[in-house]
Amino acid sequence: MASTVVTGSSASALTHLLPGHHALVADTDGELVDAVLLILREPVVAATLAANARTVIERQYTWSAIPRCYESLWARAAA
């Protein structure tokens, strides 16, 4: 079973995560309750968010993605 992420806006440092597409953002207690209830009441929404989040994590934050990040970094530094 996949997990759905509910986070605060401080996760904006994870630039590849789009609120509402990869995760739900909740900064207040009420927003957190609403987000959790949405996930519990709408399993299709929860599954879609989880699948989208997994895709971005696999593309951007895995060991196989790290060399691409460094290649890009070195290319920009050399320019």
Number of H- or I-type helical stretches: 3
Average pLDDT rating: 83
Radius of gyration: 15 Å
Classify the beta-strand content into a percent band: 5-15%
**Major beta-sheet overview:** 2 strands, parallel
| Structural class by SSE content | mainly alpha
Low-pLDDT segments, ≥5 res:
none
Compute the number of strand runs. 2
Notes on the protein architecture:
With 79 residues, this protein is mainly α. It is 56% helix and 5% strand. It is built from three helices and two strands. It has a two-stranded parallel ribbon. The longest helix is centred in the middle third of the chain and has 18 residues, at 43-60. The protein is elongated, with a radius of gyration of 15 Å. The mean pLDDT is 83.
Supply database-style keywords:
single chain; 79 residues; mainly alpha; 3 helices; 2 strands; 5% strand
Task: Detail the topology: elements first, then pairings.
Elements: E1 6-7, E2 24-25, H1 29-41, H2 43-60, H3 66-78
Parallel strand pairs: 1-2
Summarize the structure.
With 79 residues, the protein is mainly α. The protein has helices spanning 29-41, 43-60, 66-78, and strands at 6-7, 24-25.
